[in-house]
Amino acid sequence: MYKLLTLNKIAACGLDNFDKNKYEISDSCADPDCIILRSFSMHEMELPASLTAVARAGAGVNNIPLDKCSEKGIVVFNTPGANANAVKELTVAGLLLASRKIVDGVNWAQTLKGEGDAVGKLVEKGKSNFAGCEIKGKTLAVVGLGAIGVLVANAAHSLGMKVVGYDPFISVKSALSLDSHITIAKELKDALSGADYITLHLPLLPDTKGMMNAEVFKSSVKKGAKLLNFSRGGLVDNAALKAALEVGLVSVYVTDFPDAEVLEMENVIAIPHLGASSAESEDNCAVMAAQELIEYMENGNIINSVNYPNCELPRTEFDRITILHKNVPNMLSRFSNAFAEKGINIENMVNKSKGDYAYTIMDVCGDADALAAGIAGLDGVIKVRVIK
């Protein structure tokens, strides 16, 4: 029986996917085979030797120590696209909040409590302080055209905006999903230079950290642009943002990732990380994360991993050996030689690589346990499992 540790409250519709005859689900077991979580930080957590897989019910995985997991042969999954609609809808709300001074107006209206019959006149007198602009006809730059960025771009176009997208690594699926009226910029500066609104939809990586910096603000951003960030706070350099806000280069910053510095800045609309906080999104993420874990634990197939290659092989009647290993030359030949020495035939095999790591699935006819024990000792092999 597999031991499943939940580090956050996970929607019941997700946990219901696990066969209770195969999985023991707990929020406190010490030696789990797999973990499912949302925002819990694992960086200070001791990773047990038993741990095989971690599934994040969400897209971002900055709360998981990916390098450490890769070194220990722990496959990390996320759920791309499961919360995309929820984030898209909040981004559209962010466009409107940035345009119409809705937050300021609502807060001011609350100060009229107790004014009795005078409220109506006070509203009419004060409303001019909160006049804004419409988004129709304005230009939106969508930086990052993954599952969320594509939905945002298409929604903005349907609302009458001119949309320019930028993503140097856009997938074929995303490109085909974009409305044909949306322009794709070849360079970031080309997307930003004419934009009235800029929205960020890309992961926080070493290459993207602080990408909205002083140089980009100065050289590429149109004066008075409104910046939206529903991806990760670290994408925007705080010092550069503060300077841009102070001189009006950026007129409004809407973020779902406020921090102490950002909260002290003027013209910031801070939202408390509500992007994926919808009942539908949490359910979708929980179900997808559960299905990914089940497919890996029971069949050895990797779907939506962030640290190891995606790799699938249909199950047959044969025992299955899965090997997480370094992506170095001659590994497959060494595996094949080990099989040949024991007279074991490989019935089916697939191998995939991703960066420094690779994954091999082999269906064999013979003593899989003995063979796995021998392969585990080979240089470059990280973890071997037998699935029967």
Quick tags:
single chain; 388 residues; alpha/beta; Rossmann fold; Alpha-Beta Plaits; 3 domains; seven-stranded parallel beta sheet; 14 helices
Walk me through this protein's architecture.
It is a single chain. It is built from 14 helices and 16 strands. By secondary structure, the protein is an alpha/beta fold. The chain folds into three domains: 114 residues, 3-Layer(aba) Sandwich (Rossmann fold), CATH 3.40.50; 175 residues, Rossmann fold (3-Layer(aba) Sandwich); 80 residues, ACT domain (Alpha-Beta Plaits). The strands form three sheets. It has a seven-stranded parallel β-sheet with strand order 8-7-6-9-10-11-12. Strands 2-1-3-4-5 form a five-stranded parallel β-sheet. Helix 11 links the parallel strand 11 and strand 12. The longest helix is centred in the last third of the chain and has 21 residues. The chain starts with a strand and ends with a strand. 38% of the residues are buried.
Characterize the main sheet.
7 strands, parallel
Structural class, from secondary structure content? alpha/beta
Helix content: 25-40%
Assigned CATH superfamily of the largest domain:
NAD(P)-binding Rossmann-like Domain
Secondary structure tally, helices: 14
CATH topology (level 3) name of the largest domain: Rossmann fold
Tally of individual domains:
3
User: Strand order, biggest sheet?
Assistant: 8-7-6-9-10-11-12
- The percentage of residues in β strands lies in 15-25%
Ends distance: 13 Å
- CATH domain class name of the largest domain: Alpha Beta
Mean pLDDT: 95
